[in-house]
Amino acid sequence: MPHSSVGSLEEDTEIPDAPQSSPEESPSDAGSPLPKTEPQSDPIEPPPTARVKKEVKEERGNGKAELEALFADDDEDDDEDEDFIGDDDGADLLASEVKVVPSPGPIDVKPSSRAAEPEVMFTFYQRLFPFRYLFQWLNHSPIPTNDFGHREFAFTLQSEAYMRYQSFPTFETLRKDILRLNPSRFEIGPVYTANPRDRKMLSKAAFRPLAKELVFDIDLTDYDEVRTCCDKANICIKCWQFITVAIRILDTALRDDLGFKHILWVYSGRRGAHAWVCDKRARVMDDSKRRAVASYLEVVKGGSQAGKKVNVKRPLHPHLVRSLDILRERFEPDILRDQNPWRDIKAAERLLTLLPDRALNDALRKKWESDDNRASVSKWADIDRLASSGASENLNTALLRECKQDVVLEYMYPRLDVEVSKHLNHLLKSPFCVHPGTEDFDPMAVPTVTELLTEIDVWEKENGNSGRVHDYEKTSLKPYVDLFRTFVNGLVDEETKIKRERDGDEKGNSMEL
Amino acid sequence: MAMYQQQPRRAIDAKRHYASDPSQSNYPHRLNFYINPPTVEVTLDQFEQWAIDRLRILGEIESCLHRNKSPPEVAAAIGPLLDKFLPLSANSSKSTKIQEERRKDHYSHFILRLAFARSEDLRRRFSRAESILFKLRFTGDDTRERQMFMESLDFDWEAVPEDEKRAMKDSLSAATGMKSLDGESFFKVDWERVHDLVEQRRVLLRAGKAYVPVSLQVSLVLAEFIARLDKSLELTARALPRLDEDDRLIPILNHLALGFTAPEYNSSTTPTTLNGTSLTAASIDGLVQHFPMCMRHLHTSLRRDKHLKHFGRLQYNLFIKGIGLSVEEALVFWRTSFSLITDETFQKQYRYNVRHAYGLEGTRRNYKPLSCQQILTERSPHSSEAHGCPYRHFSVDNLIASLGTTGVSDRDVLKGVRADVEGQKFHIACNRVFEHVHARELKREKENESGSARLQETIIHPNEYFSRSFGLKNPGALEGQSVGGADPGADPMM
Ligand SMILES: [Zn+2]
After folding, report:
1. Which end of chain B is more exposed for a tag (fewer CB within 10 A), N or C?
2. Which residues between 431 and 490 in chain A have a beta carbon less than 8 angstroms from any beta carbon of chain B?
3. Where does the signal peptide begin and end (chain B) (predicted)?
4. Distance between CA B294 and CA B391 in Å, rounded?
5. Which residues are registered as beta bridge partners of A163?
6. Are A472 and A128 contacting, i.e. CB atoms less than 8 angstroms apart?
């Protein structure tokens, strides 16, 4: 495969820490002026009913922007809409391959100060954002292909205007536009059959989504009824354990059951994690297969009025047997002790509704009423203790065991926003700063972009600015970018192998520019 | 592509060709994967008629999907249409029409493939409807014949070796819910091929492979069917512009593609007058003997209760409209039938609805009488409601008792009805009763017409039941229809 001017991946893999001089990270850009977009010093909260988004169509060259109302597809962005409301999780993203990576501390690139946001964001894009690896990740090859060129990007500007169907032939053009528009965030959509910018000229049949990573979204707000430490957009290290165990369970199923290998776990912002399953096999799945995977993995179902939310058939499917084994290890420390969800008697009633035997429940209730605020770990143990002491004459022990399994599942099994996973054309916020940790990751301890920029200054004071070292390498972002790069290299290597094999079959298929 | 290039350049006696190419006349299996295009020419008329008949089925399937019907409901809706337009008999049926039916099925599939390959959207819809049709037939097929069909297909499914199966025994039985795996063999395939089973967590997954027990093979077969069909449609689409089509075919194909919408029973053949006499409100009681059970039940309920609830009125009003009652007479009929209420109440609460059904109020839509499919699958009656289909919505004992009150007491017939109803073949039960009640007239008609095709047709609409029944009992009486030959000895109307 001939090298292109873009630079080749082989160089990266052979000399992993070699300084690179890719244009997007050149320190000489450091003094560039801020983008034209006016910073909003006091951003106005968008209305909570932000179902209708604005699409800004930028005519390149004349700068004329035309606004049109765009009805959000109903399969798009339900969760993202919430993000428009009040929550300021701007850019962020920490990635890791769960099993491979040890866990240094995580990074939150969200600026700490709102007033400084646009400037800080601009500097972040300019100096730290790993555009090149993002390109290679989506392009699956060092040389630009339609995998990248026909990929949809969507920008949310500082003004909250929303621009869909952006596309870029190369990472330089993507970078240029991002620096020009300085979006507060951007999302990644599918690869289409044609360039998204040409969609207006094309028929529906000629312009349709072709491929996209299989994605998952786990968000702590979906755990509000089972977590006691925090609610809504707040999180702490205790409730982060829900995410940790969710990642373990999903990652195992995706690899061992479904056979995927290239899974990128990303800190989704303030409240959860995204998974990007990047195997070719996953990318080409149509909606019915995405739906199948989502249903295979989904166990906790139903809204607030649904009553019992876990209804699984017996015998348990091997995926659930294995998941329960994983959950059981963490149930006592994470749920019973840290969350202590049934401490007061009213909360304990909720546990009783999930148990099958009335006489046993009466005995439990009696015991708990006489012991105010008895700890959840004791209450959980009481169930078996009273059951074996004959509190109920006709106790069906097998059923009781099943119900207890269901409780574990209801409290700890990953809660997925399945709509995100079911649709090929769903857009998901781009990863951009990379984190490994899942086990010991503490999302509260993340440095801010401002801190990262300070780290650059400190590094340069100590080492001088030779121009031979990437800015990200001067910061605590380095391990995450390195991780992302390793992930991307693994993916590109495999794709290159697949392509070579295929090209061997049908000669003359041009990958060349 | 052979069939397409050789498509009828001229109308040819199909029978002659049929006989001249025995390989094409040999369809050993009822089911068909449609791998080989037909090569024998057919007449232009057959070409079009067969395609239209299949299109009715596919259109109805699509319409069921639009209405989110469950698989049993789709089966109930499609069953009668299939019997009528695209029957496929099992080998065990010993029917003399087996080869003819299979040939029509084979050809019509390929003709529509040609018509629907032209756009992505049509291909997708065609593939979806065809796969549902295939599944319907596959699950309804005789077990042994289905097995023979499967063996003929030569799938490249990887069998799970016995020792691997033994090693995974616990996981396999947990995943499938099977207590014992003795005698059950498994296939190992990429999970995408059985994503419906994955979706329901009914198979074991390991490293991207699904372990599918033979008893769940319908998923595999269906996935295979869809995969092959989609691929063939793509190929057909690419070949289309180059096809050397007979230019007489193009308008037919275009027209077929346009016609991919759910057909409705064409009730325009229903007479507005009987024996040249206009129907009046007073005529209805005398016509009840020609009504199918559903309408009889509505009529009896109306006479007994002096009232019908909303959906009962809707179903019955559209029916009597369909048999030719004018709106004025319908208003008289309903007013006199609801004898317990005042004029004022009637004007306020019911007049509008009656006129609405005639398209004289509101949206002014000319509503069509409900078909068996609609009655079977839409709005099941609650207690104290009289609409619906007695064959479906009555308990079997109540059904048999009701049939008794209409004079159907033949033990064999009732036994057949029980079996039909238990097998969810409600329209067959209804047709069985029809044939019994009209046995003498049907025999006479058959003698007169020497076995015309229409005798084989299954009734799928209450108004069709009525007009057939009335026509048989009163040959020559229906205007606008040529029911039966002129029979001087016909009974006068009623
Ligand atoms: Zn918390």
Report:
1. N
2. none
3. none
4. 8
5. A155
6. yes
> Which tokens in the block code for residue B149?
């069909």
Backbone region of residue B478 per phi and psi (left: phi > 0; alpha: psi in -120 to 50; beta: other values)? beta
pLDDT of res. A370: 93
CA distance A182 to A34: 9
**Number of A–B residue contacts, CB under 8 Å:** 57
Distance CA A295, CA A216 (A): 12
Tokens 């020559």 belong to residue = B476
Is the distance from CB of B298 to CB of B386 less than 8 angstroms? yes
Q: In the prediction, which pLDDT does B160 show?
A: 93
**For residues B476 and B484, is the Cβ–Cβ distance under 8 A?**
yes
| Site from B205, B222, B233, B234 to mutate, A interface, most A CB atoms within 10 angstroms | B205
Cβ–Cβ gap A318/B175 under 8 Å: yes
pLDDT tens string B356-391:
888 887 767 777 888 888 888 777 777 678 888 999
Q: Does B195 touch chain A if contact means CB atoms closer than 8 Å?
A: yes
Query: Mean of the pLDDT values across residues B199-205?
Result: 96
Q: What ipTM was reported for this prediction?
A: 0.77
Which residue of A205, A259, A319 is in closest CB contact with B120?
A: A205
CA neighbor of B493 nearest in space, from B316, B332, B324: B324
DSSP per-residue letters across B438-488 = THHHHHHHHHHHTS-GGGGPPP-SHHHHHHHHHHHHSTT-BTT---S---T
User: In chain A, which stretches have pLDDT less than 70?
Assistant: 1-117, 269-270, 303-307, 432-447, 466, 504-513
Indicate which of B192, B200, B211 best probes the interface with A, i.e. most A CBs within 10 Å of its own CB: B192
The number of angstroms, rounded, from the C-alpha of B392 to the middle of its chain's C-alpha atoms is 16
Alpha carbon B314 to chain centroid, angstroms: 23
State the smallest CA–CA distance between residue B195 and chain A in angstroms.
6
Structural element, H or E, at residue B47: helix B44-66
Contacts of B198 in chain A (CB under 8 A): 292-293, 295-296
Across the range B270-286, mean pLDDT stands at: 70
What's the token pair of residue A243? 């995410």
Asked if omega into A315 is within 30° of 0 (cis), the reply is: yes
From CA A480, how far away is CA A44, in angstroms rounded?
33
Higher pLDDT, A249 or B254: A249
User: In this structure, what token pair is assigned to residue A430?
Assistant: 């781009």
CB A246 within 8 A of CB A223: no
pLDDT digits (tens, 9 = 90+) for B389-441: 999 888 888 888 889 888 898 999 999 999 888 877 888 899 999 999 999 88
Task: Give the Å distance between the CA of A271 and the centre of ligand 1.
Answer: 10
Q: With an 8 Å Cβ cutoff, are B208 and A295 in contact?
A: no
| pLDDT at residue B247, rounded to an integer | 65
Percent of chain B with pLDDT over 70: 82
Catalytic residue IDs of A? 152, 217, 219
Q: From B192, which residue of chain A is nearest by alpha-carbon distance? A: A289
* Residues B152-173, mean pLDDT to the nearest whole number: 90
Task: Using DSSP, state whether B286 is helix, strand or coil.
Answer: helix
